[in-house]
Write a structure and sequence with these properties.
Belongs to the polysaccharide deacetylase family. The chain has about 290 residues and is an alpha/beta fold. It has one domain: TIM Barrel. The strands form 3 sheets. The chain has a 4-stranded mixed beta sheet with strand order 5-6-8-7. Helix 2 runs parallel beside helix 4, helix 5 runs parallel beside helix 6 and helix 8 packs parallel to helix 10. The longest helix has 24 residues. The structure holds zinc ion. The site of zinc ion (ZN) has 6 residues, from loops.
C-alpha cells in the first residue's frame, strides 16, 4: 500500500486512446444501474438490519423499482448493465433473475456494498469472492465488469479483480473515454469512466442521514442534456449511474424516460453495455498492435 504523497499523477495510465466507436457512431451511451437494494444501507451500518424503515428504501427496488425500469428499458429496446451486490442476488433472486431474463448484462458490485478501503485487501478479497459466488449460485453468471460500491478503489483491488477475470471497471472519474489501467504487475482492467453528473443518487434521494431537497425534473434534465450534448461533441461515453431505488420512483422514472427520448433524437449514438464497450476496446487494441 502506498501512502506516498509525492507529487505525481495518481493514475499512471496514459490518456484514453482515440479508438473510433463502432459503425461510425459519434459517441456512446452506457446505461448502468447499481442494484444495491437494502445492502447499501447495511454497508453504511450493519445495525440498519433492524431499522426496517431505513431498509425499506432499498426494499423498494425489488417490489417496484426493478420491474418498472425493466418495463421502461424493454419499451425503448435498450440493453443496460446492472451491477448487483451478492447480498441483493441472494435476498431478491426473482427480481434479479428478471433482469437476466430481459437480456441485460450483470456486473459485480461487491457483496455487502462495502466501500473499498486501501490497506484492507483481506476484507476486499472476501467481499469480491463472496460477490462472485452469489452471482454464480443465484444467477449462474460470472461477471466481467465491476463497479466499486460507494465509488472507491485502489491498486491492489484492481489487480485482484483482474486476476479474478474482471475485464473492465466502471468507477473512475478521470476521463470521458475508455482506457486501460496500468498496474505495477502489468496491464489492468479497462476503465469505462463514470460521469457523476449522471448519478441519480446525487439528485433524487433524501433520508434521515442526509436530509436535503430533491432536484426536480427541469434541473436534472438540464444537467443530463448539457452533459450528454458536450460528451457527444467530444466523442465520449456518457456512463450513467442509476439506482432502482432512485430512478425507479415515479417522478425519477419520468425524468429518465424523457432523457432516453432526448438521446433517441440522435442517430449517431451507440447505445451499449459495459461488456460491449470492453469487447470493442479489446478489438481496437488488438488491431492497433
Ligand atoms: Zn451501489
Amino acid at each position: 500500500m502506498s501512502t506516498d504523497p509525492t507529487p505525481r499523477p495518481a493514475n499512471p495510465a496514459p490518456p484514453a486512446p482515440e479508438f473510433p466507436w463502432p459503425d461510425g457512431k459519434r459517441c456512446a451511451l452506457f446505461p448502468g444501474f447499481d442494484v444495491d437494494a437494502e445492502s447499501v444501507w447495511l454497508g453504511m451500518d450493519r445495525r440498519n438490519a433492524d431499522r426496517l424503515v431505513t431498509m425499506s428504501y432499498g426494499g423498494y427496488e425489488a417490489r417496484v423499482g426493478i420491474p418498472k425500469l425493466l418495463e421502461l428499458l424493454a419499451r425503448y429496446e435498450v440493453k443496460a448493465t446492472f451491477f448487483i451486490t451478492g447480498w441483493t442476488a441472494e435476498a431478491h433472486p426473482v427480481a434479479c433473475e428478471a433482469i437476466l431474463k430481459a437480456g441485460h448484462e450483470i456486473g459485480h458490485h461487491g457483496y455487502w456494498h462495502l466501500r473499498p478501503e486501501p490497506g484492507n485487501l483481506a476484507t476486499m478479497v472476501e467481499e469480491v469472492d463472496r460477490g462472485f459466488d452469489a452471482l454464480k449460485r443465484v444467477l449462474g453468471v460470472k461477471p466481467i465488469g465491476y463497479r466499486a460500491p460507494s465509488g472507491e478503489s485502489f491498486t491492489e483491488l484492481l489487480a485482484l479483480l483482474r486476476d479474478r477475470g474482471i475485464r473492465y471497471s466502471s468507477s473512475w472519474r478521470d476521463d470521458i473515454r475508455p482506457y486501460r489501467h496500468v498496474l505495477p504487475t502489468g496491464p489492468g482492467p479497462i476503465e469505462i469512466p463514470v460521469n457523476y453528473s449522471f448519478d441519480d443518487w446525487n439528485f433524487g434521494i433524501t433520508h434521515r442521514m442526509s436530509p436535503r431537497a430533491l432536484f426536480g425534473r427541469e434541473e436534472v434534465l438540464s444537467i443530463w442534456r448539457d452533459e450528454f450534448d458536450q460528451t457527444r461533441e467530444w466523442s465520449g461515453v456518457a456512463t450513467m449511474i442509476m439506482h432502482p431505488q432512485v430512478s425507479g420512483r415515479p417522478m425519477r422514472y419520468r425524468i429518465l424516460e424523457e432523457f432516453l427520448q432526448y438521446v433517441r433524437r440522435y442517430d449517431d449514438v451507440w447505445w451499449t453495455t459495459g461488456r460491449e464497450i470492453a469487447d470493442h476496446f479489446e478489438a481496437c487494441e488488438s488491431a492497433a498492435r
